[in-house]
Each structure stands twice: as structure tokens, then as C-alpha cells.
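# step 3/5: fold
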Amino acid sequence: MTPEDFATESSLTASLGEDGAYGEDRPPRKTGRRYWLHIALLLATMFTTSLVGSRMQQNFQANLPPLGVEELWDAFVHGWRQPLALLDGLPFSLTLLTILLAHEFGHFLTCVHYGLDASLPYFLPAPVLTGTFGAFIRIRSPIYYKRTLFDVAVGGPLAGFVFLLPALAIGLAYSKVIPGIANEGAFRYGVPALLWLLEKLVFPGVASSDIYLHPVARAAWIGLLATAWNLLPIGQLDGGHVVYSLAGRWHKMLTWIFLAGLVVLGIRFWHGWLVWAVLLYFLGRRHPAIVDPGSIGSGRKKLAWLTLLIFVLCFTPAPLVENPEKEGFRMSDAGRTVAGCRLSVAGKNRRRTVLTDNRQPATGNRFFFFP
């Protein structure tokens, strides 16, 4: 490993002299920033994620199944009428927004380091189970070097992962064991490898289907999926940029192979992959050409292996699967049965009559641990 392994775009250009042949490499004049728009989108996303988080917190405290579509709709239609209830959603909201901010600022600060003109993050509020479609930045400057492309690409996932890991551990420390809880909600949530490993440390001997994730852990779970999706080696995703900087001539073929892989995953595990495949085919399949015959260096190649490991730890083939309707399972205002526990439900006031003690799980032992 040499200092040239991590040379910057500006230093490479400067080596040609003040009047070098690559004068066009100098970044264009930076455009003005619309701070009001970034702040408005951030606040709107904090509101939508707090709506989702408040309902998650209510269900978690009452040992009710995780959030379903009907409850999600109710949260967005009626949740704003109780402003104080939004405070319960802040642990979920702030955790998720911090992970997303870290990811996007990883990209943004790398662009600043290389003198590239990039926008601040744009957040996307949405009435979905996560409360947001995520965030993105716009890079207005052209990128001329594969080393620069690689650094900008990995900066986001690495920064997001640094914040995601402690959040997941803390969230697991506040999670609890309710036998069969994963089978009682409208959906079954996938278990990425990193979550599975930490669950075995925090709840040894307990199946993942018996662990009810705290909203903070659920926010970290969303961060795991966002990291894995961005590291898919396709088109202009972060993983696609990494592949292009390593082996640009294979990028197009690998994009087609992994797009076909998404179709297979969509048919076999989760239909959402089909939507991703269509979107990536039309919007992010092609990669801008970079004419740079140089290598990215051994140091960056080692970093590429680290990003591959992060992808494997964060990925799950079935993030969300609809639970089949159970025979004899009914919901009413009088109550519902969850994992063999009778839970009273009276309008908006939910009262726990019988539950599994968080400190004394029904199966296995528990010890404190905690992204």
C-alpha cells in the first residue's frame, strides 16, 4: 500500500501542472443551495416517521403484533390529531433519520473532499411502513477518476454502517421475547445475517420468530436493508459504482446478471424485488463512462472486500412476507390473542392482562448487549 493508493482527484490533476492538459477537470462553480427545501423535507420526514414510530411504540408496549397496513393507514389519517403522541415515535424516527443522514453525508463529505459540487440530502417523506422512501444527494460535477468514484460510492454505506451497528445493538437490548410474535402480525420481517448474529448474543437459545424488536431496533433493521439495497452491484447504485471502479468493462454484464437475479428473488421470495428490478432497468441501469486506465490501488481493493462483507451482513432475500391468514384468528374491539397471551383492547386504550416478562423470557436466557 502506497500514498498513491489514496491520492485525491485534485492531487492527480495538480501533478500535471497549473496549466496541465486536464484543465476541464476543475469543478464548475458551485450552485446556490436551497436550504429551505432541505429543511422542509427533513421536517416532513421526521413527522411521517414519527407517526409510524408512535404506533410502533404503542404496539410494542402493549405486546400487540407489529404494525400492519390498516394500522399504518390509521396512523397517517388520525395520528396527527394527537401531537403529544408523536413524542413516542421519536426514538424510531431519530434513529432512522440519523442512519440515513450518516449515509448521505458520507457521500456529501467525500464530494466536498474532492471539490465536487453536490447537494445536501433530499429526504423523501412517504405514507409507507418506514415513513420515508429514504434520501439522496445530487452530484452535479462530472467525475473523471475511478478512485474518486470509488471513494464517493463507499463513503455512504460505510458511514451509515458505523451508526447502524450501535443502534441495532441498543435496540436489541430493549427488545423482548414473546413466543410466536413474528407469526401474529400482518407481515413477517426478514432477518439479515447481522441481526441474526446479534440476536444470538442478546437472546441465546431464542428463535428470531420469538423476538419482538423495539422500534429503535426496527429503525436499524430498515438501515440494514437500505445499506444492502444500495450495495447491490447494479447500474448507478453505490455497489454499481464500486464494480465500475474495479472492473468497468464488466459492469454492463454484471448489471444484467444481477437484474436477472432480482427477478428470480422476486419470484421466489419477495415481490418487491420485481419492482426494484423494473425501476433499476429504466432509471439506473446505465453508468456514465469514465476514461481512466489507472488502478484504484490495493488499499481501495481491500476496502471493496469490506463493503462486500457489509452487503452480506445486511442482505436478506425476503425482507417482508405477508403472513397467511390463520384459521380461527379474529380481531375485535374486545381483544386479540397474541402468542398465547390475552390482550384487552378497548378503543384507543390498550391494556395488558397477561404477558411474557421482558426480563424473564419464556425460553432461553437473556443478557444485556447492544447499532
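# step 4/5: annotate
The chain has eleven helices and nine strands.
# step 5/5: archive (pending)
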